[in-house]
Amino acid sequence: MGATTLGALVGGAIDAMSGDDNAADGALYGAITANVLKLVLPVAVTYAIGWGVLKGLEALGDTISEKVTS
Q1: Which residues contact 11 (CB under 8 A, 6 or more apart)?
Q2: How many CB atoms are located within 10 Å of the residue 57 CB?
Q3: Angle, helices 3-18/24-69, rounded to nearest 10 degrees
Q4: What does pTM read for this prediction?
Q5: DSSP letters spanning 10-43
Q6: What is the chain's pLDDT, residue by residue, as a tens digit (70 residues)?
């Protein structure tokens, strides 16, 4: 089952719990949210990994330069 379909189902179910109207608008919001997360989540994970690597290289460089100057 695709992420868009799953997002629509979850959004519709959450919206239907309020009982004010039909679940169509909640399904639409759920599908849109699922598609946005499919784009944003990999970018955020890639950024976090890259940031961690850069911080690790910075710490390694600091350690090496301290040993060289000592």
Answers
A1: 23, 26, 27, 28, 29, 30, 31, 33
A2: 10
A3: 120
A4: 0.64
A5: HHHHHHHHH-SS-SHHHHHHHHHHHHHHHHHHHH
A6: 688 888 888 888 887 887 767 778 888 888 988 989 999 999 999 999 999 999 999 999 999 988 888 6
